[in-house]
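BUG: 3D viewer hangs when loading the predicted structure for this chain

Environment: internal workstation, default settings.
Expected: structure renders.
Actual: progress bar stalls at 90%.

Input used:
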Amino acid sequence: IYGPEGIGKSTFAAQFPEPLFIDTEGSTKHMDVRRFEKPLSWEMLMDQVKYTTDNAPCRTLVIDTADWAERLCISDICARYKKSGIEDFGYGNGYVYLIEQYGKLLNALEDTVSAGINVVLAAHAVMRKFEQPDEVGAYDRWELKLTKKVAPIVKEWADMLLFANYKTFAVAVDDKGTKHKAQGGKRVMYTAHHPCWDAKNRNGLPE
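Structure tokens produced before the viewer hung:
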């Protein structure tokens, strides 16, 4: 589940059966939910996932958020190889390590699913300029706020990719219908792919 800040990703995730949160950014402090101690390292996060798989203390494990988890992963890699940033490896080598390590998290979460526990990843959304290689022009689209190397493996791994956003309505404010103002702000969750966002589901949900 991804979307802009404040849309209600954590609140929605909390509606799943018996949720237990791994709150990587401390965003659930105002919510009455069960949560692990905030992970301070990638190793600690992985240990919490393994504990959940082995002990089944919940029916749903929520990682909130996947992009902050990625930060922990990058910090771990950079500390291990004594680099100041993921770009310092050169020739994209840092991203090879990142895909490998984040892939281990997804594999661990697959074990959690196999143990009969639901897994929900919440993530922030970011708007990026997208250029179609076979068409003239470019347009803005919403994407997961993950590096461009990690986002595809997360999208592929998930059974559902749900995009939550505010739907704004343009309302005419003059008799001729030439002047409009934005009104509304209804929250909508999109379940199918669109040129302006990534989404998918395997459950036949309405768009």
